[in-house]
Amino acid sequence: MRSGVGEALMKLIADMLSSVRGGRAVFSKLSFEVAGGEALLLTGPNGSGKTTLIRTIAGLLRPAAGQVRLEGGHPEHSLGEECHYVGHLNGVKSTLSVEENAKFWNRFLDGAHEAVETALATFGLSALRDIPAGYLSAGQKRRLGLARVLLARRPIWLLDEPTVSLDEASQAMVAGAVDAHVAAGGMVIAATHVPLGFGKSRELRLGGQAMAA
Amino acid sequence: MSALSEVLRRDLVLAWREGGTVGVALGFYLIVVTMLPLGLGPDLKLLSRIAPGVLWVALLLAALLSLGRLFETDLEDGSLEVMATGPVPLEAVAAAKSLAHWLTTGLPLAVLAPILGLLLNLEPDAYAVLVATMLAGTPAISFIGAIGAALTVRTRRGGLLLALLMLPLFVPTLIFGISAIGAALTSSDAFGPSFLILSAISLASVALAPLAAAAALRLQLQ
Fold first, then answer.
1. Residue of B nearest to A63 (CA)
2. What is the value of pTM for the model shown?
3. Domain boundaries defined on chain A
4. Residues in a beta bridge with B180
């Protein structure tokens, strides 16, 4: 378990980051910083490298050049261990119930036991807890996937198009969770095409070069 | 450690609820072994001579059937990406999933083998040895097989490729399993060494194969 103390002093630094996918430069020499208590929105057209950038920060992809590092993080944790990565897929098993899915990730990610109730309540899933996840609608599954960010305390949230298939009320739940996390000194980096309704956020637009080429 | 037992428990629960893969492996084993006497004719001596080999080879093929899905479902639903960035090394996750595969496939197949031995007129002395060699040898199949499952996780219809890649690697397990049974039946001194080498192959693959499987998975996630 981790506390939020000192997270406001954290800083995620991307330094001259380049990525090549399938022989094509997705982005090159990208530099930016995100500090604790900030939300950064990644925008840009399809194929501009939003997902690639998020997966690179999570440590799933190796950059072709440059590096991403975290200042002020736990000395024994890798950057990936400080991140919650919620990609296009939800990491939900359809034969497990909503609660079993949540409990599995809670224990696997070493979160506090109370976090399961909080996460289910925050994302409006408490009433659905005994239903096998296979019977959930696309939006409910997405909420269960997103609920993972509250199942264990991690300072950096990496969200890839978090509001896909969510209705307005559910989008407000996500925005509420993000605002609370940012207010507590956490960092959020989200890729999106639509306004997410976060309280305050900066925008990083990708893909100027990609469009020209 | 608790995260590992959690992965193991989840895989066992999923195998129990989904049921399909274990049932298919057991059914395949049963059918292959049942069809063989029909094809070879009612020569009891011949059947009892080839019984250990048939039971072992059919077990390898049956175990391969469910190996293909070992990491595939977790890749498809995104669980693998989360596990790859999690606090637990991917090597440990691969080991826990291989162990779950052994508990849900290798173990039931080994326990079923003596019943199928009846169909092949297996010699009475051979039953205990057969089960002992299978219990000692099947962990190697699950753990080495996990490497192949990781390598082919993104390959569509990777099942055949998995068989091509993995069956040659199962040869040592097969040879020492069969030679241990043969030695026990002819009461030669070779049983001890063969059985120990079989156990050593299993232990070495339990220790080393998860490293290779995790490396293959990291490559697949790129």
1. B222
2. 0.89
3. 7-212
4. none
Contacts with A148 from chain B: Cβ below 8 Å: 82
Contact at CB, A87 and B14, closer than 8 angstroms: no
Q: Quick check: B78 and A88 CB within 8 A?
A: yes
Burial class of residue A140, CB neighbours in 10 A (0-12, 13-18, 19+): buried
State yes or no: pLDDT of B215 exceeds 90: yes
- Within an 8 Å CB–CB cutoff, is residue A210 touching chain B? no
Direct distance between the N- and C-terminal alpha carbons of chain B, in angstroms, rounded to an integer? 27
Q: Are strands A187-191 and A202-205 parallel, antiparallel or unpaired?
A: unpaired
Phi-psi region of A78 (alpha: psi -120 to 50; beta: other; left: phi over 0): beta
Domain containing B213 equals 2-221
Interface membership of B1 toward A (CB under 8 Å): no
A25 inside 8 A of chain B by CB: no
The token pair that represents A191 in the structure block: 């890729």
B122, B130 contact by CB (below 8 A): yes
CA distance B213 to B143: 9
Q: Is A157 on the interface with B (CB under 8 A)?
A: no
- Residues A105, B17: C-beta atoms closer than 8 Å: no
Strand A187-191's sheet: what is its strand order? A83-86, A156-160, A187-191, A39-43, A202-205
CA distance B221 to chain A (A): 7
Q: How far apart are CA A160 and CA A117, in angstroms?
A: 24
Number of structural domains chain B divides into = 1
Q: Which CATH superfamily is domain A7-212 in?
A: P-loop containing nucleotide triphosphate hydrolases (3.40.50.300)
How far from B77 is each of A146, A206, B13, B81, B112, CA to CA, in Å? 14, 27, 17, 9, 33
pLDDT, tens only, A53-78:
999 998 888 888 888 888 887 777 78
Contact B3 A108 (CB under 8 A): yes
Condensed to tens digits (0 to 9), the pLDDT of residues A21-39 reads: 888 888 888 888 888 888 8
DSSP letter, residue B169: G
> What is the ipTM metric for this complex?
0.84
Q: Could A60 and B81 be called an inter-chain contact, meaning their C-beta atoms sit closer than 8 Å?
A: yes
Closest residue, chain A, to B16 (C-alpha): A95
Does the beta carbon of B156 lie under 8 angstroms from any beta carbon of chain A? no
Interface probe, candidates A109, A113, A159, chain B, greatest B C-beta count within 10 A = A109
User: Tokens at residue B153, please?
Assistant: 């996780």
- Count CA within 13 A, CB hemisphere, residue B76: 11
Contact across the interface for B6 and A81, Cβ inside 8 Å: no
Q: What is the pLDDT of residues B30-61, one digit of tens each?
A: 999 999 888 888 888 888 888 999 999 999 99
